[in-house]
Amino acid sequence: MNEHWLVARLYCSKPLSEVAVVYLWLKAFHVIAAIVWIGGMLATSILMLSSVREGQQIQKASSSTLITSVRRWDQRVTSPSMFVTWALGLAIALLGGWFPAAWLIVKLCIVLLLSALHGWLSRKLFCQQEKKSISAFPKPQCIPFVVIMAIAAIVMLVVTKPI
């Protein structure tokens, strides 16, 4: 099934097939889950920027409460959103017949990078909450930029399918 075919069908008077409707719903929920996941990553990385200075631990009680709240959000919302994004994305790729398109392989590599970065941020939250030290790599200052550039690359790949 080709996505361009689906788009063309949206503008026709004939009803969409059940598979096409499922494909569009999966894609909508995939985008929603990705927005929640990336929003959580950006919020966590901004918290790291404001609370971590050269590997020093947070000393203020209010900051500690904030770390605990953000970590809880990460565990209950951001991480599950990442898994939903992966599951729905793979389902869309299989249903749409996108494997082994080069643009999709590049996108999956970028998403894998974002997933690893999310894991590092989650670990950083845990260490901050437990007052343990963790490697400062990657530098917290670059994380929001990396996330935004990765998302921009993904959007460009998905919309244009250049390769």
Largest sheet: none
**N-to-C order of helices and strands:** HHHHH
Number of domains: 1
Q: Give the CA-CA distance, first to last residue.
A: 18 Å
* Helical fraction: over 70%
Topology, number of strands: 0
Q: Roughly what is the average pLDDT, rounded to an integer? A: 84
Structural class: mainly alpha
How large is the radius of gyration? 19 Å
Report strand %.
under 5%
Number of helices: 5
The parts where pLDDT drops under 50 for at least 5 residues are none
Shape designation: elongated
Q: Can you summarize this structure?
A:
This protein is mainly alpha-helical and 163 residues long.
SSE topology sketch:
Elements: H1 3-10, H2 18-51, H3 61-96, H4 102-129, H5 143-160
Pfam family, one: UPF0093
Pathway: Porphyrin-containing compound metabolism; protoporphyrin-IX biosynthesis; protoporphyrin-IX from protoporphyrinogen-IX: step 1/1
EC number: 1.3.99.-
Structure description:
The chain has one domain. The chain is elongated, with a radius of gyration of 19 Å. It starts with a helix and ends with a helix. With 163 residues, the chain is mainly alpha-helical. The model has no long low-confidence stretch (mean pLDDT 84). Helices cover 76% and strands 0% of the residues.
